[in-house]
Automatic annotation (TrEMBL):
The chain crosses the membrane at residues 107-125, 160-182, 194-212, 241-258, 270-291, 397-419, 425-448, 455-483. Gene3D superfamilies: STAS domain. It is found in: Membrane. Keywords: Membrane, Transmembrane, Transmembrane helix, Transport. It comes from the Eukaryota. This is Sulfate transporter 3.3. SUPFAM superfamilies: SpoIIaa-like. The gene is SULTR3:3_1. PROSITE patterns: SLC26A, STAS. Its main location: membrane. The keyword Phosphoprotein does not apply. InterPro entries: S04_transporter_CS (IPR018045), SLC26A/SulP_dom (IPR011547), SLC26A/SulP_fam (IPR001902), STAS_dom (IPR002645), STAS_dom_sf (IPR036513).
Amino acid sequence: MEPNNENRVIDITAMEVHKVVSPPHRSTFQKLKNRLKETFFPDDPLRQFKGQPLKQKLLLGAQYVFPILEWGPNYSFKLFKSDIISGLTIASLAIPQGISYAKLANLPPIVGLYSSFVPPLVYAVLGSSRDLAVGPVSIASLVLGSMLREVVSPTKDPILFLQLAFSSTFFAGLFQASLGFLRLGFIIDFLSKATLIGFMAGAAVIVSLQQLKSLLGITNFTKQMAIVPVLSSVFHRTNEWSWQTILMAFCFLVFLLLTRHISMRKPKLFWVSAGAPLLSVIISTLLVFAMKGQKHGISIIGKLQEGLNPPSWNMLHFSGSYLGLVIKTGIVTGVLSLTEGIAVGRTFAALKNYQVDGNKEMIAIGVMNIVGSSTSCYVTTGAFSRSAVNHNAGSKTAVSNIVMAVTVMVTLLFLMPLFQYTPNVVLGAIIVTAVVGLIDVPAAYQIWKIDKFDFLVLLCAFFGVIFISVQNGLAIAIGISILKVLLQITRPKTVMLGNIPGTGIYRNLDHYKEAMSIPGFLILSIEAPINFANATYLKERISRWIEDYDAEGGKNKKQSGLRFVVLDLSAVTAIDTSGVSLFKDLSMAMEKKGLEFVLVNPIGEVVEKLQRADETKDMMRPDCLFLTVEEAVASLSSTIKYQIPDNV
C-alpha cells in the first residue's frame, strides 16, 4: 500500500499508553468448571434454586421436570375453551395425516392413529411448548420406511418390519433423551439451515413422486426412492394407470391445494385448510362406498383394527442381526425429528414471546418416543403443519394435545369401521399437499443471495436426496457443511489494517478505501482462534505479508522500510500450544530480520498462555504489548522520526 504522496517530517509525541495486564488468577479446576458450565449449561438452569428453601427447591425441581405442574395450577376454563377448539381442529388434521404418514412409512394405517394418541399425552406432561402439536411427520416417516425397506420387505415380512419400526423408534427416543440429559443438544446444530432446506425440499419431491403409485392407481411400483427409478416405473407401467383413480386424484388435489392457498392468503381462515383433509376423506369414502369404487380399480384402505394401542414392548429388538440397522435408523430419524420439533417449537415461542427450553424438549420428545415404541407407535415429533394450525386456532397450553389425543381415542374405539372404504388415492393427495409446503423457494433464494457456499450445500442435499437416497443425500450435505467449518478453522482470515484519516481507528485496507497504511508498519489482524489446525498456515501467511511489503517497498522508493509488524489479536478468542509456538517462532524470525514484533489487545487466556511460555521475557515485554493499534503506532513512532501522511 502506498502512503500519501504529500509527506512531511514530524516528531510524534507519545500518547498515554495503557498497560496490558494479566487476567485474575484462577485454578485449573475453576477454569475447567467454567468451561464445562459454558459448554453444557449455558442457560444456567440451577440459578432458580439459589437462595430458595428446601420445600421451594423441591417444587421448582418438580416443575422443571414436569412443566405441566408450572402452568397447571393456574389453568382456567377460559384457557380450556381456546384449547378445546384448537385441539379439535388439529385432530381433524391429525387423523387423515396419521393414516397417510403410516402408509408412507410402509406401516399399517392404524399405527399412524396409535402414534397420534399416546405421544401427545406424554408431551403434554413433559413438553415446554404451548403450540407444538405432536404426531407422525412426513420426513421421519419417509426416512424410517426407506431405511428399513432396504433390508426387510414390508409386504413379504410385515411383522418383522413392524418390529424393526418400533425398535428404531425406541432407539430414536433413547438418543433424543440422552442428548437432553447430557446437555448435548449442540450436536443437532450440524444440520445447518441450508442443509435442512435442501434436504426437506428433496424429500418433498421424493415423497410426492412416491404418491404417484396411489394417484395413478399403479399396482406394481418400484421399491427404490431415487427419482430416476421412480419415474421409470411410472412410465413403464402406463398399462396399469386407472382413469377413475386419476380423475379422483386430480379433483381432490385441486381441492386441497386450493384450500391451502386460501388459508395462506388469509390466516384467519386457517380452519379451511385444517378441515379439508378430513372432509376429503369423508367425501371420498362416501363416493367409493356408494359407487363401489373398489370394483372399478380404486384401491381402498380396507378394514382397520378397532381399539386402543396394544402393548409392543415384546416386539422390540435389542439383539440379533438387525440391531445395527435399528440403531442407525433410530439415530437418523431421531436427529431429523428432533431438529424439526425444536425448530417448530422455537418458531412459535418467538411469535408469542415465551421461552422453549431446548434440553427439556429433547427429553420430552425422547421419552415420548420411548413410551411410544412400547405402545405400538413409531417416530413422532412436532409437525409444522399441525403446529401452525394449533397456533392459528388459538392454542394457549399443551392441553390442546390432550384434546387431540382424546379425539383420536374416540376414533380408535368407535369410528374405525368408517375408514374401511377410504381410497388410497385421497391419502396420497393429502400427503402431496402436506409436503408441498416443505419446498421453500424464497428461503433458498435468500441463501443464494447471502452465501453461495451455503447454497452449494443446499443443492447437494437436494440433488443427493432425489438422485441417490434420502440418508445419503443428508450425509453428503452434512459432510460439506463440516468441510466448510474445517476450512474456516484451518484457513482463518487475516487482513491488513490501515488508519482512517483524522481518527485513531484502524480498519481493513481492502474494505475501507479511505484507510491508509502507516509507513514502516505492517499491521495485521487475525480473525479466528489460533490452534494446531491453522498455526502453520498463519505462519506462512504472515511471512508472505512481510515479503509482499518488502517487494512493494523495492518498487516504491518513497515508501519507508518495514520496521514494525503489529498483530491485532482482538478477534483471537483462544490459543493452544501450537499457537504459542507460532508466536515464539514469529518473534525469533522478526528478530533475525531486524523487525520489532508487537501484539495488540490479546485477551486474558492468550496473555496468560503466552506469559507462561515466554521464559526469556522477550516476547511479552511492556513495549511489545498494547491495548489498541492506535497506542501501538503512537508509542513506537515516538521513538523515531518518520515520513508519514499529514492526516495520521
